[in-house]
Specification:
It is a single chain. About 15% of the residues lie in helices and about 25% in strands. The protein has about 325 residues and is an alpha+beta fold. It has one domain: Extracellular Endonuclease, subunit A (Extracellular Endonuclease, Chain A). The radius of gyration is 21 Å and the shape is globular.
C-alpha cells in the first residue's frame, strides 16, 4: 500500500465539487489573471493517505494479547513529583483568548492549530472597530526562549499571516487586537498567497458564517515532505529571524458548519505556502480531513458523530 499521496496538480484535487454552503466559488476574489500564468501548478508535496473514510466509522481488528504477557507494574504516584522535581519541559501549550483558542508550538515559534467559533455577530463588527488600530505584538505569556518577535519577520520576505483572521473578530476592538498576537501569526508568502488566495479562503469562511448560526474553524500550519532528485522524501522549510521561526510548507483550514437541524457540513482545505495563480479556485484545495489529521498529528471534530455530517467537501454523505 502506498504510504503517501501526491498532492498533485491543483486542478486534480476534488474535481467536480461545486457550490458549498450556498456560496458560489466563482464569486470569490482571485489573483489577477495576467499574473503568474507560467507558475508551476505541480506542487509535488505528499500527504499521508487516509485509511478511514470520513463518511464511515473505522472497523479495526485489535491485536490479540497473549495471556502469558506479564502485567504492567503500577508506578507509585509519588514518582512523578520525584522525576519532575525541577520542572516540566513544557506545559504552556494552550492559549485561550476571547474568541479563539490555540495550541502553541514552542520549537517552531508558531501555533500547532488555532480554533475559532464564529457567529454572525462576530463578523458584522462595530463602527469603532478598525484593524488599523491593531498592532502586532509578542505573546508575553510565552517564555522568551520560544517566543517569536516582530524583528524575526523584519525584512524576511514573508508576511505576518493570521491563522485566526482579524476580520473574523470585528465584534470588539479588543478581540481583533488579540488576533495580532504573534502566537496567532505564521510566516506566509505575501502577494499571491496571504494577500490573495488565502485571503479569498478567509472571505469564503466569513460568507458562510454570515448565513449560519454556528461555524467552527480550525486553522494551522503543515510541514509536508517533498520528493527530491535522489528519489527520497524530505521535509524542508526555511526559518526566519534570530529565533528561527519556521516557515510552513502548507496551511490547512477545516470548517464545520452547523445548520438549523443540528446537522453539519464539513470542508477541509490544504493550500501550499507559495504563489497560487488566480485561475485556481479554492475548491481545488479540498482534501479529505484524514490527510490533515495524519499530517498534522491532530484529530479534528472527532467528538461529532459521523452520522451528523450530511455533507463532506461538497458531497452528500
Amino acid at each position: 500500500m502506498k504510504q503517501f499521496r501526491l498532492l498533485a496538480t491543483v486542478s486534480a484535487l476534488s474535481a467536480g465539487v461545486g457550490v458549498l454552503a450556498g456560496v458560489n466559488y466563482d464569486s470569490i476574489r482571485r489573483i489577477k489573471k495576467d499574473q503568474l500564468e507560467n507558475e508551476s501548478r505541480n506542487y509535488k508535496y505528499y500527504i499521508p493517505l487516509p485509511t478511514v473514510s470520513a463518511a464511515a466509522p473505522a472497523n479495526v481488528d485489535l491485536p490479540t494479547i497473549s495471556n502469558t504477557v506479564s502485567p504492567i507494574p503500577v508506578t507509585p504516584s509519588n514518582r512523578v513529583s520525584e522525576i519532575m522535581k525541577y520542572g516540566f519541559p513544557s506545559l504552556d501549550q494552550i492559549r485561550s483568548y476571547d474568541n479563539f483558542v490555540l495550541s502553541y508550538d514552542r520549537r517552531n515559534r508558531t501555533a500547532h492549530w488555532v480554533f475559532e467559533h464564529i457567529k454572525p455577530e462576530h463578523i458584522l463588527g462595530k463602527n469603532d472597530t478598525d484593524r488599523e488600530n491593531s498592532i502586532f505584538q509578542e505573546d508575553y505569556s510565552i517564555h522568551p526562549y520560544f517566543r517569536a518577535t516582530n524583528y524575526d519577520y523584519k525584512s524576511s520576505g514573508y508576511d505576518r499571516g493570521h491563522l485566526a483572521a482579524a476580520a473574523n473578530h470585528r465584534h470588539s476592538q479588543h478581540a481583533m487586537d488579540q488576533t495580532f498576537t504573534l502566537s496567532n501569526i505564521s510566516p506566509q508568502v505575501g502577494r499571491g498567497f496571504n494577500r490573495d488566495a488565502w485571503n479569498s479562503l478567509e472571505k469564503y469562511v466569513r460568507g458562510i458564517a454570515r448565513m449560519n448560526k454556528n461555524v467552527y474553524v480550525c486553522t494551522g500550519p503543515l510541514y509536508l515532505p517533498r520528493r527530491e532528485a535522489d528519489g527520497r522524501l524530505y521535509i524542508k522549510y526555511p526559518v526566519i529571524g534570530p529565533n528561527n521561526v519556521a516557515v510552513p510548507t502548507h496551511f490547512f483550514k477545516v470548517i464545520a458548519v452547523e445548520n438549523v437541524h443540528g446537522d453539519f457540513e464539513l470542508m477541509s482545505f490544504v493550500m501550499p505556502n507559495e504563489v497560487i495563480p488566480d485561475s485556481v479556485p479554492i475548491k481545488n484545495f479540498l482534501v479529505p480531513i484524514e490527510t490533515i489529521e495524519r499530517a498534522g498529528g491532530i484529530l479534528l471534530f472527532d467528538k461529532i458523530p459521523k452520522k451528523r455530517f450530511s455533507v463532506i467537501n461538497g458531497k452528500r454523505v
